[in-house]
Design brief:
The protein is built from 14 helices and 12 strands. The protein is of the alpha/beta class and about 350 residues long. It folds into 2 domains: about 230 residues, Aspartate Aminotransferase, domain 2; about 90 residues, Aspartate Aminotransferase, domain 1. The protein has a 7-stranded mixed beta sheet, with helices on both faces. A 3-stranded antiparallel beta sheet has the order 9-12-11. Bound molecules: pyridoxal-5'-phosphate (PLP). The site of pyridoxal-5'-phosphate has 10 residues, from helix 3.
């Protein structure tokens, strides 16, 4: 059986999670009649100190519903250059919501509030685009699982308030940020107007994200979710998997972080230009192959031939993500395969 480290989305529901799914009370969620969905939305909203939540089938949709509530057509969202909203949602903000984006680059995606605030241009009058919101990704996926410092988030909030801007958190992996930093979900929640969290990445549910905000925004977002065709029926089945994931799979993320660090340390020992292990704080290991005579696609192929699946996300950038279906024995095996593939 191959070891699959392409993403933390490749996990399969455990027997216990399937059991919870099988016995979930359900109803028609388009009528807001599904008790398991309703309790999940309330639960996640309370965790982050928000008034309401809305279940969404994907993190992308949760992000898109949220930013649509903050930014009007023709207005601007600012986000980091390699953020998921900018790079991996296929222009959805522009296509669906008429939102323009401007970006600021950060090394490893690590937020510096002043960089975002510097390019913000609210109330730009009739000739220039007005900024209305800033998005933060925590942890930062393509940055290598980077945890955003709470001091920078707080500084961003202060600056955003001075400029009259809203803040969105793409918290697909906020669980990893919490476990790595010890910062509470309530603390993260208080700085943002809208939040998206994902239950199907590190936490291992098969499907599901939740968008969080005020009752008013969530009520409006519910209409847009239906308009986009994502009004679903007996999805308590999915929400039950998400409840199970919240009950059982948050604290264990520390194991994923430990294994990612082990991989990073082993790879840095081969060639320190590939990765600085000190920046691996969560479950993502990003490899910079710039100094090696091998492309990311070639490395991924060599690994695949040896039974390890990794992602080639750029010509010279490969990514490995640890997750709950990856154990210590597989970690040792993955390290051996990587060592051989890198020096071959
Ligand atoms: C940071 C981040 N946000 C949002 C998403 C989107 O999630 P989905 O694939 O469920 O649309 C991802 C997916 O990997 C992600 O890494």
């Amino acid at each position: 059986m191959a070891i699959d480290l392409r993403s933390d989305t490749v996990t399969r529901p455990s027997d216990a999670m399937r059991e919870a799914i099988a016995h979930a009370p359900v109803g028609d969620d388009v009528y807001s009649d599904d008790p398991t969905v309703n309790s999940l939305e309330e639960r996640v909203a309370a965790m982050f100190g928000k008034e309401a939540g809305l279940f969404a089938p994907t993190g992308s949709l949760a992000n898109q519903l949220a930013i649509r509530m903050l930014v009007a057509p023709g207005e601007e969202l600012i986000a980091e250059t390699n953020s998921h909203i900018v790079r991996a949602e296929l222009g959805a903000a522009a296509v669906f919501s008429g939102i323009t984006t401007r970006t600021f680059p950060e090394k490893n995606g690590l937020l510096k509030a002043s960089d975002a605030l510097e390019i913000a241009r609210p109330n730009s009058g009739p000739y220039l685009v007005s900024t209305t919101a800033i998005a933060v990704e925590n942890t930062h996926n393509f940055g290598g699982g980077t945890v955003q410092p709470i001091s920078e988030i707080a500084a961003l909030r202060t600056g955003a308030d001075e400029l009259g801007l809203a803040l969105h958190l793409d918290g697909a992996r906020i669980w990893n940020a919490h476990v790595a930093s010890g910062v509470s979900f309530l603390e993260y929640g208080k700085y943002f107007d809208t939040i998206s969290v994902c239950l199907s990445k590190g936490l291992g549910a098969p499907v599901g994200s939740v968008m969080l905000s005020t009752k008013e925004r969530v009520t409006k977002a519910r209409v847009w979710r239906k308009r986009y065709g994502a009004g679903m029926r007996q999805i308590g089945l999915l929400a039950a998997g998400a409840h199970y994931a919240l009950d059982n799979n948050i604290d264990r993320l520390a194991e994923d972080h430990r294994r990612a660090k082990e991989i990073a340390v082993a790879i840095a020992a081969i060639d320190s230009s590939l990765i600085d292990p000190s920046i691996v704080e969560t479950n993502i290991v990003g490899l910079d192959l710039a100094a090696l005579p091998i492309t990311a696609a070639e490395l991924a192929q060599r690994c695949r031939d040896a039974g390890l699946w990794i992602s080639a996300l750029g010509p010279k950038y490969a990514r490995l993500v640890t997750h709950l279906d990856f154990n210590d024995a597989q970690c040792a095996e993955a390290i051996e395969i990587l060592k051989k593939a890198l020096v071959a």
